[in-house]
Amino acid sequence: MRVPTRVRIVERGPVLVDGPVCIELPDGRTVESDRFVVALCTCRRSSCYPLCDTSHRSPKRTA
């Protein structure tokens, strides 16, 4: 029996997908990741889009 791929949506964060994955971009290019969990960017701020680099996080405030 095949185990379904788990996809988790993080509030104000990325979409987490159990890996490994092959992601097909709209222009036909593919991005592959062999990690156990892959974070996909939903804000498009990531410098390594479609993979998340935590650019969605707001800067920490200092006192």
Write the layout of secondary structure elements.
Blueprint: E1 7-9, E2 15-18, E3 21-24, E4 30-33, E5 37-40
Antiparallel strand pairs: 1-2, 2-5, 3-4
Question: What does the model show?
Answer:
The protein is mainly β. It has no helices and five strands. It has a three-stranded antiparallel sheet, with no helix packed on it. A two-stranded antiparallel ribbon has the order 3-4. The protein starts with 6 loop residues before the first strand and ends in a 23-residue tail after the last strand. The model has no long low-confidence stretch (mean pLDDT 88). It holds the Pfam family zf-CDGSH. This is Iron-binding zinc finger CDGSH type domain-containing protein. It comes from Mycolicibacterium insubricum. InterPro entries: FeS-contain_CDGSH-typ (IPR018967), MitoNEET_CISD (IPR042216).
